[in-house]
Amino acid sequence: MVTLGARRRLDAGFLANAACLVGLGFAAVSAYWLLGGGRLVETLGGDLEKQARVRAAPAVVAMSIVVALKVLAAVLPAVVIRSRSSSAWMRRLHVLAWIDAAILTVYGLVYTTVGLLVQADVLHSPAGSNEHALAWHTYLWDPWFLVWGLLLLAALLRRRGETRQECG
Q: Which residues, at least 6 apart from 49, have a Cβ–Cβ distance to it below 8 Å?
């Protein structure tokens, strides 16, 4: 049974803050690699890992874009959820927040599911795949996207419910 105190803690603002922290944590890992950090870079796998290790210009540009997008994807919805404005600009940002939640959730769900199926030998990974990187993606990186997306989705749904209560 959920108590009144627990309901207050799970309001849209709390969920938005949790989603924001999860997203900023993910951005921090990418920023660490961008700045030359080497721990866990082997968990990226493939060409991205190779380019990150040699700090190739395309990898630095790509990682800079990834960090910026992750920060934006983490902060924008928290701002939207806390806003009480109904301006056209804020409505557009609200739509972007829903798109953000959908992309994060679907991406995380699909890649986590496929990874788990590969780990369970239901599906087979291509020959020459980096099993170490695949395991990290299955058990950490892809579920991280899923948790982030689900928290954001819950915050947006809770915000919708709170807005209806305010109006009703």
A: 41, 42, 43, 130, 133
Amino acid at 145: F
Helix axes 142-167, 12-34, angle to 10 degrees: 150
Q: What share of the chain is helix, strand, coil (3-state, %, to 5)?
A: 80, 0, 20
pLDDT tens, 106-149? Answer: 999 999 999 999 999 999 988 888 899 999 999 999 999 999 99
Residue closest to 137 by CA, chosen among 149, 147, 145: 145
93: which 2 tokens? 């940002």
Given a contact cutoff of 8 angstroms between Cβ atoms, the answer to whether 151 and 19 are in contact is: yes
User: Which pLDDT value is given to residue 161?
Assistant: 72
